Each structure stands twice: as C-alpha cells, then as structure tokens.
C-alpha cells in the first residue's frame, strides 16, 4: 500500500513558510519560555468564526462536560446542557456520567440513532440485570431501576435531546479513549465495559478491542458525513482530545504506556481528519493541559481531573480566537481566562508572573475585583506596596461594599508610613462597615 502524506509541498515553499512562522521554534527558558511553563499556551489559526450569539453542542468524553460548563459560565448558549430527561434523568443525577461518550464509536452511535431513529436498536440495548432493572452500556455504568417500556421512553427522550446537534451553530467533539468494548451479537461498539454479570452469563458475546489509527479516522469521517447529511446550517466544528488519562487499562502493559498510545493515536488521526474539511478545526485542549505545570493543571493534584481554572483558561482562548470582541486578542484572554490564569499562578506563588499578566491585560484586570485583589497580593509579596495599594483602590471603587479591599488598604498604610491616610480610611470604614469594629480596634498603631 502506498503511504499517504498528510501534507506535501516543495522544499522552497517549506523554507519560505518556516521563515514567516514566528512560533516555529520550541520554547526555551530564554526565549518564549512563558508560552510553555507554568501555563502552556499553544496557538491556533481559526478557519472560521463563531458568532457572538451562536449556539454550541458539545459531545464526547467527560472533558466535554467541563467544556460545556465553562462556555455556559462565559454566557454562551450550550444546547447540550438544555436537556430535561424526566423522571429517570432526575433519578440518575450527574454522578452517573451517562452523558459521556468515551470513544468515537459511542459518539457516532448516539448521533446516528438521534438523527436516523430507525437505526436505534430499541430494547435490544437494554441488558436485564434483575426484575425491572436494566443497564445500557451506551449510557455509562448507571443501573436503570424501571420497567423496559419506561426506560425506552426515556431513551427516545434522550435521543431527542441529542438531535439538537443538527441545530447547533458549533459542534465541539472531545475524543476520550481507544480501549473499547464490543457486543458481537448486536454488532455494536459499547460506551463502557459491560457488567461482569453479563460477561459471566455470555462469556463469548463481548470483546475488548483497542482501536487503531484507521479505526479512529474511519469513525471520525463517518461522524462528519452523518452531521453534514442532516444539517441545514454549515457545520462549524472544533475537535480535540481529552487530556483526562485512562483510570486503568485492560491491556497487558503499564497504564502509562497504554494511555500514551490512546491519546497519541487519536491526536494523530485528528490531524488527518481536519484536512480539506471546511469549518473543521483542531483545538489543542490536550496540549494546554499536558504541557502545563502539573501543580496547576490537575484539580486536587490527582493527575487525572483537569483544574476548573485550566478549563476556563482553555475556553477563554477558544472564545478570543474564534469570537469577535470576546477579549484581548493579543493575549488570547477573556476576563474569565485572566482570572483563571491569575489563580493558577497564585497556586505556584508566582507573584511576578501575576503582576506581569495583569499589566499585559490592564483593561481587563482593572474591571475585575477578584483579579485586582490577587494582583494586590502579588505586588505586596514583592514589596511593591504602592502598586498593591493602587490595585486595592481600584477594587474598592468597583465594589465599595467589600470590606476586605478597604481593610487591606488600611493595613498597608503602616509599612507605607501613611498614618494620616490610615486615619481617614478608618473613618470611612466606620461609616461604611459599622459592624466590623473588631478590625478597627486592632489598628492601634494609627
């Protein structure tokens, strides 16, 4: 078989293009080091724009839920969050993860069934676990304690919600894993491992399969064809790989090695997938997380769950790159992203980094109380007392009912030797916060 290149250009064109690429060289401590550590900031060039009022539908592994929450928090309308699943949905709550689709096949299954309802297997995908108890491995590990008819009605309601993917302006796909499970009777890839009870009952029915590069690419192309076939709007699609690693592997190898394959083969397939597809871009969420300092990348330092601050930083970058007027293009930053970045630098005690970040995004920082408070702390730790005081003044002007900004200003007056200013501020404090006399009683030095 003849090898297929994902790109082929003449040598002279390659050298000309390289000369014009300011981001061509890998960062080093003395050059562009802040693009990599402590917070990686890979850059992309969008091939399409997202309108300020465009709706979004996110699907894929658990990281897709992080994306949804961050975008919703940034004021975007996320159709994949506007789901009412009735009695069964309410009984399951969020803990069951039945929204998560961990492989390209489980994503495609759900979208195909939603848009081409005749393909839905119906009761065949409900595996009996006892009297009026079933499981559907396409919907995670949840046990459904209802009769089959009630569950099927719920299942169609779920598919109705998934069908919103054809109406959304932007589709975000997050690939998870390539370790998959297959039902040989239904000729169907499952979303999660079937219950051990079922495997024991029918030991030859289920297979463990590790997807290849060709498997992943074929699944991506199948999903793209399905979406374009059923949409009336042009498809605008962001694809990425979840940075969340495997919890455990079923392969006979170290989970670190298995996870490296799982992520890298999907990352490689996406580079070929986006070629020649208008309105389809790869966005480097995976690189944002895995290249950053682990101390800030992972929530609770568990090495698996991405810090909400990092997710906000990633989505800030998406919005600034793709949505006109969403933030400062120079630093690819929204107010939410700036706050998230400042919090991450604070975890590392990187006080100079915080001050530099705020200076680089002065207009954004000056409009956000929480950012100014962090900047004030950073400047104080660097013994730049005047700058700390100025940041607190701005914070107080924005939120005059916050006592902490005023109290920190009063406390700063002592090392700054501004006793007269401290007395004036104490009078303002007594007028604005009469109930906080305990603080005033401690300021005996004034």
UniProtKB/TrEMBL annotation:
Residues 56-316 form the GSCFA domain. InterPro entries: GSCFA, TPR-like_helical_dom_sf. Pfam families: GSCFA. SUPFAM superfamilies: TPR-like (SSF48452). This is GSCFA family protein.
